[in-house]
């Protein structure tokens, strides 16, 4: 499990960029069955992908120390659930268990060669259809959703098209947003950057870094529902093809 520590402003900006990147398909979670699996998901996936834990191998003492450290930093659950999580991690991800080599993450499709006109049209469609209100593309847009700057390296054209036409109902843990309500009644939505027993740091819907004391919060909720709308029927076939082609071309960070 990744340790959460208070962040400097520069670190928050860096972590914000890392957290909003689209994860490759190979990073999707595949947890073994067993007692403690549900508790592990519930307690650990609200702040980070559970693969950050399952990619490690530790002794029972090591997992006990890690889980207890997470509890001091804000992970919540009754003692019985905490003990189940420790047993589950030790049984399935102990030092006697081999690390599973993941499949190659990158999509091997050749990036489509776009003309200047096709690139310009793709950018225009991104802006005209409100994509930048949640996503960033080449330095423009919001930090709330996954960064699409290298989406073509992690998703095929068909996967991109499917995500636009029939978005998943829920989002991966690393892409979840949070909603907090302060004791004064202010509601803020954003993407969590760091959480411990004392504070919560996030980047809000206006891309501003915010920090709140846990004691000043009235409510704190993890939002796993996918806010992505379906573009089925909202784009012509030609515009959909142009947009998918443009996104598929984004494979390298230096492509404008």
Description:
By secondary structure, the chain is of the alpha+beta class. Among the domains are: 25-92, Orthogonal Bundle (Cytochrome Bc1 Complex, Chain D, domain 2), CATH 1.10.760; 173-223, SH3 type barrels. Helix content is 33%, strand content 14%. The strands form 2 sheets. Strands 6-5-4-3-7 form a 5-stranded antiparallel β-sheet. The protein has a two-stranded antiparallel ribbon with strand order 1-2. Helix 2 packs across helix 5 and helix 4 packs antiparallel against helix 5 (79-92). The protein is globular, with a radius of gyration of 20 Å. It starts with 8 loop residues before the first helix and ends in an 8-residue tail after the last helix.
Core attributes:
about 260 residues; two-stranded antiparallel sheet; Cytochrome Bc1 Complex, Chain D, domain 2; single chain; about 35% helix; 8 helices; disordered N terminus; alpha+beta; SH3 type barrels; 7 strands; 5-stranded antiparallel beta sheet
Question: What percentage of amino acids are in beta strands?
Answer: 5-15%
Radius of gyration (CA) equals 20 Å
CATH architecture of the domain at 25-92: Orthogonal Bundle
Q: Low-confidence parts, pLDDT < 50 over ≥5 residues?
A: 1-28
Briefly note the CATH topology name of the domain at 25-92: Cytochrome Bc1 Complex, Chain D, domain 2
Order of helices and strands: HHHHHHEEHEEEEEH
Helix/strand-derived class?
alpha+beta
Query: CA-to-CA gap between the ends?
Result: 35 Å
Number of strands: 7
What would the average pLDDT be, to the nearest integer?
79
Q: CATH class of the domain at 25-92, anyone? A: Mainly Alpha
Number of helices: 8
Specify the helix fraction band: 25-40%
The profile of the biggest β sheet is:
5 strands, antiparallel
Largest beta sheet: strand ordering: 6-5-4-3-7
The coarse silhouette is: globular
């Amino acid at each position: 499990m990744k340790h959460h520590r208070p962040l400097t402003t520069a670190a928050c900006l860096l972590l914000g960029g890392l957290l909003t990147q689209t994860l490759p398909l190979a990073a999707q979670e595949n947890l073994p069955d067993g007692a403690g699996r549900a508790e592990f998901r519930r307690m650990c996936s609200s702040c980070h992908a559970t693969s950050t834990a399952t990619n490690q191998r530790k002794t029972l003492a090591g997992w006990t120390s890690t889980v207890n450290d997470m509890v001091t930093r804000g992970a919540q659950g009754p003692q019985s659930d905490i003990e189940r999580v420790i047993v589950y991690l030790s049984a399935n991800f102990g030092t006697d268990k081999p690390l599973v080599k993941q499949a190659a993450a990158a999509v091997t499709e050749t990036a489509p060669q776009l003309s200047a006109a096709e690139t310009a049209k793709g950018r225009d469609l991104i802006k005209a259809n409100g994509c930048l209100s949640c996503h960033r593309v080449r330095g423009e847009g919001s930090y709330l959703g996954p960064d699409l700057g290298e989406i073509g390296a992690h998703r095929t054209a068909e996967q991109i098209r499917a995500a636009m036409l029939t978005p998943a109902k829920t989002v991966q843990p690393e892409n979840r947003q949070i909603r907090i309500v302060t004791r004064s009644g202010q509601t803020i939505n954003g993407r969590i950057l760091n959480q411990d027993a004392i504070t919560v740091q996030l980047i809000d819907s206006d891309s501003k870094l915010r920090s709140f004391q846990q004691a000043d919060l009235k409510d704190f909720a993890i939002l796993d529902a996918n806010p992505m709308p379906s573009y089925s029927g909202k784009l012509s076939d030609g515009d959909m093809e142009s947009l998918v082609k443009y996104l598929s071309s984004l494979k390298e960070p230096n492509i404008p």
